[in-house]
Design goal:
The structure holds two protein chains of two kinds.
Chain A: E1 2-11, E2 14-24, E3 29-34, H1 40-47, E4 55-60, E5 63-64, H2 70-76, E6 78-81, H3 93-100, H4 107-120, H5 122-126, H6 137-149, E7 155-159, H7 167-184, E8 187-192, H8 195-201, E9 204-209, E10 212-218, H9 219-223, H10 226-231
Parallel strand pairs in A: 3-8, 3-9, 6-7, 7-8
Antiparallel strand pairs in A: 1-2, 1-4, 4-5, 9-10
Chain B: H1 2-32, H2 39-59, H3 64-91, H4 100-120, E1 126-127, H5 147-169, H6 171-181, H7 183-188, H8 193-219, E2 221-222, H9 226-241, H10 246-266, H11 272-286
Antiparallel strand pairs in B: 1-2
Helix pairs in contact in B: 1-5, 1-8, 1-9, 1-10, 2-3, 2-4, 2-8, 2-9, 3-8, 5-6, 5-8, 6-8, 9-10, 9-11, 10-11
The chains are: A alpha/beta, B mainly alpha.
The complex binds adenosine-5'-triphosphate and magnesium ion (MG).
């Protein structure tokens, strides 16, 4: 479904990604783990078209998307829940959701999706007329996910959704991700520092170190890998 | 009492004109964090375009209301085209440059446009025809409000009302607010941010052009420097209200207009700028980000 082929990304003269190749198949949950500054967010921003790769290509559904504008990439079916949530603070919860559906014109289906998401995250319905900036961290994370889903993405990119959240909320959010994957066949690319959690829900995983992929494979296999256990699982 | 009400109306009229210009400053600042120093010139270009179009239409003896509407329309279109072009050639290439670069580019654009209009037109004052008829129903109140003032008030209130409806309810309005609040996230939900920026310049220039035609018709003469002077006043109003805030720009404009008008009426017109800027300083001491501005704006 998505293929990153030998991607190099630079910030000015500093190279952040070195020859990254990642494949995500339809219906999978794939996770990307790595320490601070490894290049995880950079990878997602490259997929979304915010950062142009200097070398390499990104292919989505047999079409090259590297070089396309971010709005085209959303339209093709990739939505991102960025690190830090990035809720529009002065827009209401409802307006934040509307913006998630910005490129859609099927108004009736948009209303249905909104109702479905309010069902999935009841707290958002209760807060729907409240400015997004006044929500708690967990509520904002739910809103960020719901907003991304308003675009009806084929591929959902998530950047550290567990960051700063209580374990209970994190568990709730991960259960919803699993449900989306199982019941709605949403393919998920999950960036996490919480490797323990990520390796438990993902099918496959990539480990990033200093902008390079150093390990990859089935999540269950990586969980038993002594190197991963020592560096990322704190064992 | 009647004198006070007269001053009140003249202050509101001034305030309306400032608001039409201040909105352009505040919207552009809200979206890209730039003080568009060339914005006053959009108002000046609107007035000059209006003059040319109005004179032609008057030669052909069009009825006055038609002349006014067509003149305003032509001014809006022409100024918008300038606003759009200025952003494209003077600001967009500098989007990633250090803060100071687009600011200098903006000042350069302002000087360039003044000189350009001066070359193709003239540096002297030109008479501007009165486009607003005397409304018979206002005759009993002639002592407190003239027809032109009433027209300025009504037209600008309608323009501002339409603007706020658009910003609040329409798709592009939501995209504008989203872009102003978090540009990167706007990109991530699929907003074409470049297009929103262009649209903001078009909108701001169009509003300023309406102001230009209204005030030119009121005062009866224009020259190439009117944009500079009105621009500084409107910019002051935008800062007073809290730059980046749309209601702030409107409030700041009326506060400034009323202050000037009351100073002129009760003290002397020589002091109108003194009082206006004293008020600005005073307000900024107590509310550094303006009347309705958000705290901790660090965009300049
Ligand atoms: N805007 C930027 N300009 C310059 N360098 C940057 C920029 N953003 C990120 N970097 C650098 O690129 C590298 C990768 O950063 P990135 O944000 O992708 O890491 P990350 O894996 O997401 O880290 P974290 O877990 O802390 O979010 C880091 O060395 C970082 O300092
Ligand atoms: Mg990151």
């Amino acid at each position: 479904m998505l293929e990153l082929q030998n991607i190099d990304v630079f910030y000015g003269n500093i190279q952040a990604l070195h020859d990254i190749s990642i494949t995500i198949r339809q219906g999978e949950i794939v996770t990307l783990i790595g320490a601070n500054g490894a290049g995880k967010s950079t990878t997602l921003m490259t997929i979304s078209g915010i950062l142009p790769p200097r070398h390499g290509r990104v292919i989505f559904l047999n079409q090259q998307i590297s070089g396309l504008m971010p709005d085209r990439i959303v339209q093709l079916g990739i939505s991102q829940v960025p690190e830090g949530r990035h809720i529009f603070p002065a827009l209401t919860v409802s307006e934040n959701l509307d913006l998630g559906a910005f490129l859609r014109r099927d108004h009736a289906a948009i209303a249905d999706d909104k109702a479905w998401l309010y069902g999935l995250f009841p707290i958002l319905e209760k807060r729907r007329q409240q400015p997004g900036g006044t929500l708690s961290g967990g509520e904002q994370q739910m809103l960020a996910i719901a907003r991304a889903l308003m675009a009806r993405p084929k591929l959902l990119l998530l950047d550290e959704p567990s960051m700063g959240l209580a374990p209970l909320i994190t568990k709730q959010i991960f259960e919803i991700l699993l449900k989306l994957n199982k019941e709605h066949q949403t393919t998920i690319f999950l960036v996490e520092q919480n490797a323990n959690l990520a390796l438990r829900i993902a099918h496959r995983a990539y480990v990033l170190e200093n902008g390079r992929v150093v390990l990859q494979g089935d999540a269950a296999v990586l969980r038993d890998n002594p190197v991963v256990q020592k560096a990322y699982l704190g064992m | 009492m009647e004198y006070f009400i007269e001053l009140l109306f003249s202050g509101l009229t001034r305030g309306s004109i400032y608001a039409l210009i201040a909105l352009g400053y505040t919207m552009v600042y809200g979206i890209i964090g730039l003080i568009n120093f060339a914005h006053g010139e959009m108002y000046m270009i609107g007035a000059f375009t209006g003059l040319i179009v109005a004179e032609i239409l008057l030669i052909y003896q069009f009825p006055l209301p038609a002349v006014f509407v067509l003149t305003a329309l032509a001014a809006v279109i022409w100024s918008s085209a300038y606003g759009f072009t200025v952003e494209r050639i003077a600001y967009r290439p500098l989007r990633k440059a250090p803060r100071l670069a687009p600011l200098i580019s903006a000042i350069g654009m302002s000087i360039f446009l003044q000189n350009y209009v001066q070359l193709v037109q003239t540096a002297d004052f030109l008479p501007f025809p009165s486009l607003i008829p005397e409304f018979a129903f206002l005759e009993p109140y002639a002592g407190i409000i003239g027809s032109t003032d009433a027209a300025i008030l009504v037209v600008s209130l309608i323009a501002m009302l339409l603007l706020s409806v658009m910003v609040k309810w329409t798709r592009i309005g939501k995209a504008m607010r989203a872009t102003a609040q978090d540009q990167k996230m706007a990109l991530l939900v699929g907003v074409n941010v470049d297009r929103i920026i262009s649209f903001t310049f078009i909108l701001g220039s169009g509003l300023a052009a309406i102001g230009g035609v209204l005030i030119a018709s009121h005062v009866g003469q224009i020259n190439v420097f009117i944009g500079f002077i009105a621009g500084i006043k409107a910019f002051t109003a935008a800062v007073l209200g809290g730059i980046g805030s749309i209601p702030g720009a409107v409030l700041g404009s009326y506060v400034l207009g009323l202050t000037e008008s009351l100073t002129t009426g009760y003290v002397s017109s020589d002091y109108e700028d003194v009082f206006a800027f004293a008020l600005l300083v005073l307000i900024l001491i107590f509310r550094p980000s303006g009347l309705l501005g958000k705290a901790s704006v660090d965009k300049v």
